[in-house]
């Protein structure tokens, strides 16, 4: 991986809706036991909203992956076999972990 100070890296902010199997795998690889407060990057967006992200750097791209309860849940439940039938760059492959029949018990 290249240094995060490389000015030639593409910079991409990724929210859960745009999370692909490839990026999810990179997140789980870098943070196999989860992330802690020291891993979180905080900034304000153009709407002056506080955004919290974790950083993933590849050879040509710096990803800032927005932190959410959905991200934490898919990281906990991650199994690469779940994504075998999808393309690595398919954002529809990573499903909302809170939008399942299993969560509805009543």
Describe what is shown at a glance:
With about 110 residues, the chain is of the alpha+beta class. It has helices at about 20-30, 70-75; strands spanning about 10-15, 40-45, 50-55, 60-65.
Q: Spans with pLDDT under 50 lasting ≥5 residues?
A: none
Number of helices: 2
The side-by-side strand order for the widest beta sheet comes to: 1-4-3-2
Order of helices and strands: EHEEEH
Q: Write down the overall mean pLDDT.
A: 85
In angstroms, what is the radius of gyration? 15 Å
State the total count of DSSP E strands.
4
- Helix amount: 10-25%
Shape: globular
Q: Termini distance?
A: 47 Å
Strand content: 15-25%
**Tell me about the biggest sheet?**
4 strands, mixed
Total separate domains = 1
Q: Based on helices, strands and strand pairing, what is the structural class?
A: alpha+beta
Strands, helices and their partners?
Elements: E1 10-14, H1 21-30, E2 40-44, E3 50-57, E4 61-66, H2 69-76
From the structure above, extract its key features.
106 residues; 4 strands; single chain; alpha+beta; 2 helices; 4-stranded mixed beta sheet; globular
Question: Mind explaining what this structure looks like?
Answer:
The chain has 106 residues and is α+β, with helices and mostly antiparallel strands. The longest helix has 10 residues, at 21-30. A hairpin with a 3-residue loop joins strand 3 and strand 4. The protein has helices at residues 21-30, 69-76, and strands at 10-14, 40-44, 50-57, 61-66. The protein has one domain. The protein has a 4-stranded mixed beta sheet with strand order 1-4-3-2, covered by helices on one side. The chain is globular. It contains 2 helices and 4 strands; from the N terminus they run βαβββα.
